[in-house]
Design a protein that fits this description.
Elements (H helix, E strand, L loop, with lengths): L2 H14 L6 H14 L1 H13 L10 E5 L5 H7 L6 E5 L3 H13 L6 E3 L13 E7 L8 H11 E12 L5 H16 L1 H10 L1 H15 L8 H10 L3 E8 L4 E7 L17
Parallel strand pairs: 1-2, 1-4, 2-3, 4-5
Antiparallel strand pairs: 5-7, 6-7
């Protein structure tokens, strides 16, 4: 496939997703949801706890694709304060919240790219770590996006993915948030949350509808892993997370060592 053909397919993926969640409308209440959702904090902990195993250089290049309001870069910066961070997100309102957050924390060197991942370009072998959390499902066609990510990753780099692959059950999430809020913050705080999160509910309903319409990618854990393998990654870890609505994968690139089991069998001696 030529580069122009690939670009046309990626642009089509952008046009097919516009009817989904209105992230501009979601932006002002997104961090409210994140603050009070225990599963959101568990996802961040999964990333933080995995870092020591990956040997990311202290001044390495790290990219967050679909970075939203910047919570993952903030979490990573507490462990790797000297790393070079790239924040990629198409939504202006989300990015403004992230900019303000970084500024208050003294993270003035974060690079911003305000565009769809399908249109973003980086040099090959650029990043030591790429993270993409609950964004790939909206980046159609996923296999073409993953192949771009594959090119951007250094040979020793890691890809950390969490992706929302199951149908949203609004009542299930509502009860979960209600019970968590009462348990951890009390009835008054719970009431304030639901009064102030009308847009969160509205946008999640819109996202659920877009799932049914085929606008967002739904997948099983095995389908998720198979897609990553087809894109050329070695899947080092694959499991459920986020109350089993999401799949988590940690990926690396195949080694060029002919003695490695990851090296294509036909090229081994």
């Amino acid at each position: 496939m030529s580069a122009s053909q690939e670009d046309s397919i990626l642009d089509l993926g952008i046009s097919e997703k516009v009817a989904g969640i209105d992230w501009d409308a979601y932006a002002t209440q997104y961090d409210l949801m994140a603050k009070f959702n225990p599963s959101y904090h568990e996802n961040i902990s999964l990333l933080r706890n995995s870092l020591p195993d990956w040997n990311i250089p202290s001044e390495g290049a790290i990219c967050d694709l679909g970075a939203g309001t910047g919570n993952y870069i903030v979490a990573l910066s507490k462990i790797l304060p000297d790393a070079e961070y790239y924040h990629v997100d198409f939504d202006e309102a989300m990015n403004e919240i992230a900019r303000d957050k970084y500024r208050k924390l003294g993270l003035d060197g974060v690079h911003f790219l305000e565009d769809y991942i399908q249109r973003v370009e980086f040099p090959d072998d650029k990043f030591d770590l790429i993270i993409c959390v609950n964004a790939l499902y909206a980046m159609s066609p996923q296999i073409a996006v993953l192949k771009k990510i594959h090119r951007w990753l250094k040979p020793s780099g890691r890809l950390f993915l969490i992706d929302y692959g199951r149908r949203t059950r609004m009542m299930d999430w509502g009860w979960y948030m209600l019970k968590s809020l009462i348990r951890d913050h009390g009835i008054a705080e719970c009431a304030r949350f639901f009064l102030n999160s009308v847009e969160v509910v509205r946008q999640n309903r819109q996202g659920s509808k877009h799932q049914l319409d085929g606008g967002y990618w739904l997948h099983t854990t095995n389908e998720f892993g198979d897609t990553l393998t087809k894109a050329g990654f070695i899947v080092d870890d694959l499991r459920l997370c986020y109350r089993d609505y999401c799949d988590l994968a940690v990926c690396s690139l195949p080694t060029n060592d002919p003695q490695s089991p990851e090296f294509p069998p036909e090229l081994q001696e």
